[in-house]
Amino acid sequence: MALDGTGKRQLRTRAALVARARHLTARKGLTGFTIQELCDQVGVSRRTFFNYFPTKESAVLGVENGLDSALVDDFLAARAVHPEARRPLVDDLVEVAIGHFEAMSPTASDLADFVGSMQREPKLIAAMIDSGRSEQERFIARLAESQGDADLLPIRVAIVTFEALVRLSIDTYLHGADVVPFADILRERVRAARELFAPLPTKRLVPSP
Amino acid sequence: MALDGTGKRQLRTRAALVARARHLTARKGLTGFTIQELCDQVGVSRRTFFNYFPTKESAVLGVENGLDSALVDDFLAARAVHPEARRPLVDDLVEVAIGHFEAMSPTASDLADFVGSMQREPKLIAAMIDSGRSEQERFIARLAESQGDADLLPIRVAIVTFEALVRLSIDTYLHGADVVPFADILRERVRAARELFAPLPTKRLVPSP
Questions:
Q1: CA A46 to CA A50: how far, in whole Å?
Q2: Which residue in A73, A79, B43, B85 has its CB near the most CB atoms, within 10 A?
Q3: pLDDT at A29 over 50
Q4: % of chain A at pLDDT higher than 90
Q5: Which chain B positions have a beta carbon within 8 Å of A118's beta carbon?
């Protein structure tokens, strides 16, 4: 599930537009800058901007089309096989998350700009919650369709718990004392989750020799 | 880990103050009502209010002292025994979450008031994020201390994944089509997480008879 050059460039361009849109919103408010200024600062044309986002607001929200990446397409294709031929879902999710993270390379100041943009334009908060939720629902629906699953519950549980592990890993990556690759941080946390949710050990009926 | 009458009443009073403070903030803003008005509407004295919260803002945030309940004390006491005498951590967390939920009985309009209060007073957003994070850290530290654990990572992973399951369960409870007790909803989602993170089945070396 490696991204080719075009796929990586698209994710990076998209991430750069979102980061800059949030930065400008945090400093100047939504009406304090134009799409043209945003494009100039990122170094893309207006036409490129509209390939990714329909409006300035949607760039700040940064969620529309976020799932339409080659990475997600490959992930869904890998799930669309006979259940016994699939890897455990968590393992495939780990690969997608690492690929996205590495292409987008978020920084601590990106995170501060995100919070700052919501504080400057509080009307975006409800939109952010709504669009985050509908993007999650769309991902759940696409994954269920790929896997041929009628029951959404196991997939929904997988996505929300996995997202929690990704958020925790990003936080450690951005604010942790040590310099550790994101991939290692995430894998370590997934291992811890496996231990947490491990089934109870069955009691031995006879003492071991 | 059952709550006695006093413990339940305290959780309910606290929840009522938070819900009303958010409702008033969403409608009138932080300066649009007094602590006295809030107390009158909930039916408690100012003195009772200050037993729970130091300021009006902290009632809206609803996080200070949220962990100082008899329920959490009992939970921590149950973890402060020899590791082999403990139940799986997730099972104990399930009991605490159900106890809290049943004492606090959140409604869909409580959730709408929460979002509304943040939109009306955006300066509270950063405070909400900070206080949520520090409450979580305090809970993690207390649990680690009770268990005598030096490594916080497994506990941190437990808390963030479990919180994700609780949020998902509250959402289903408040917005789901069917009327199902919260306890059943949460337990079903924890079961799904166990399956998700289950270790790989080991391959049989010989066919079963």
A1: 6
A2: A79
A3: yes
A4: 61
A5: 122, 125
Residue of B nearest to A152 (CA): B192
The alpha-carbon gap from B3 to the nearest alpha carbon of chain A, in Å, equals: 26
Question: Is A32 part of the contact surface with chain B (CB cutoff 8 Å)?
Answer: no
Please check whether residue A192 is in contact with residue A169, taking contact to mean a CB–CB distance below 8 angstroms.
no
Q: Which of A23-37, A173-187, B123-137 has the lowest mean pLDDT?
A: B123-137
Chain B nearest CA to A51, separation (Å): 30
Cα separation, B23 vs B32, in Å, equals 11
Q: What's the confidence (pLDDT) of residue A3?
A: 64
Q: Which of A157, A194, A202 to mutate to test the interface with B (most CBs of B within 10 A)?
A: A157
Domain residues of chain B, as ranges? 5-196
Query: Cα separation of B53 and B61, whole Å?
Result: 10
Q: Which CATH superfamily is domain A5-196 in?
A: Tetracycline Repressor, domain 2 (1.10.357.10)
Do residues B196 and A154 lie in contact, with contact meaning Cβ atoms separated by under 8 Å? yes
A88 touches chain B (CB under 8 A): yes
SS3 (DSSP) at A123: helix
Distance of CA A70 to the CA centre of its chain: 14
Q: Going by C-beta distance under 8 Å and a sequence separation of 6 or more, which residues neighbour residue B22?
A: B60, B62, B110, B113, B114, B116, B117
pLDDT band at A199 (very low <50, low <70, confident <90, very high): low
Count of CB atoms situated within 10 Å of the CB of A82: 7
Q: Minimal Cα–Cα distance from A95 to chain B, Å? A: 16
Per this entry, what is the length of chain B?
209
Average pLDDT for chain A: 88
Cα A105 off chain centre by: 11
Rounded to 10°, the helix A153-175/A182-196 angle is: 130
Mean pLDDT across A105-123? 89
Closest chain B CA to residue A130: B115
- Type of residue found at A118: M
Its ipTM equals 0.83
